[in-house]
């Protein structure tokens, strides 16, 4: 499953970058995230940052451990998570356009186990719909924070 959602933000990309890379404070400005526990923190930058995130998905709290595998400052970072027999890759990218920014989040989920492949075939459409809704809400929350500060 692949999805990608974007939003226009009336703020420079550096401000947006500061918000999206402050993972520890994510519960303060992203309504779907209930808590974050940093597990590994790099000496500088975000590459290698690893955390456990508790968020509400499909009406229930779920924990995922994620880490940043690729990053370019003020441009993008990519995370990886492995859970429930699947590998999840997400990317947050910000581009500046004449003083405003475009923030795009993409998500790719690839089932690895037989059970995950069966569940994906049977319920993938429902998971995709819920994931799009969550990503769109995350982007709206980030937009609100960036434009208010």
List the helices and strands and how they pair.
Layout (H helix, E strand, L loop, with lengths): L1 E8 L3 H9 L4 H4 L3 E8 L9 E8 L2 E13 L3 E8 L2 E12 L2 E12 L2 H35 L1
Antiparallel strand pairs: 1-7, 2-3, 3-4, 4-5, 5-6, 6-7
Helix pairs in contact: 1-3
Q: Can you tell me the number of structural domains? A: 1
Strand arrangement, major sheet: 1-7-6-5-4-3-2
First and last CA, distance = 34 Å
Number of helices: 3
Q: Kindly name the structural category.
A: alpha+beta
The largest pleated sheet is described as:
7 strands, antiparallel
Overall outline: globular
Strand content: over 45%
Number of strands: 7
Q: What is the CATH class designation? A: Alpha Beta
What's the CATH topology label? Alpha-D-Glucose-1,6-Bisphosphate, Chain A, domain 4
- What is the mean predicted local confidence, pLDDT? 92
Can you name the CATH architecture?
Answer: 2-Layer Sandwich
CATH homologous superfamily designation: START domain
Radius of gyration: 15 Å
Structural summary, described in words:
The protein is an alpha+beta fold and 149 residues long. It is built from 3 helices and 7 strands; from the N terminus they run βααββββββα. The protein has helices at 13-21, 26-29, 114-148, and strands at residues 2-9, 33-40, 50-57, 60-72, 76-83, 86-97, 100-111. A 7-stranded antiparallel sheet has the order 1-7-6-5-4-3-2. The termini are far apart. The mean pLDDT is 92.
């Amino acid at each position: 499953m692949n999805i990608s959602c974007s939003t226009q933000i009336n703020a420079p990309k550096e401000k947006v970058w500061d918000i999206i890379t402050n993972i520890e404070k994510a519960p303060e400005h992203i309504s779907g995230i209930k808590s974050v526990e940093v597990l590994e923190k790099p000496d500088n930058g975000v590459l290698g940052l690893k955390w456990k995130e508790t968020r509400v998905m499909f009406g229930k709290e779920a924990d995922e451990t994620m880490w940043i595998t690729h990053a370019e400052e003020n441009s993008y970072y990519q995370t990886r998570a492995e859970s429930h027999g699947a590998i999840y890759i997400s990317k947050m990218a910000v581009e500046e356009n004449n003083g405003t920014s475009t923030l795009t989040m993409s998500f790719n989920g690839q089932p690895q186990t037989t059970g995950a492949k069966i569940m994906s075939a049977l319920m993938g459409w429902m998971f995709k719909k819920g994931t799009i809704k969550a990503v769109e809400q995350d982007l709206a929350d980030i937009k609100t924070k960036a434009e208010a500060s």
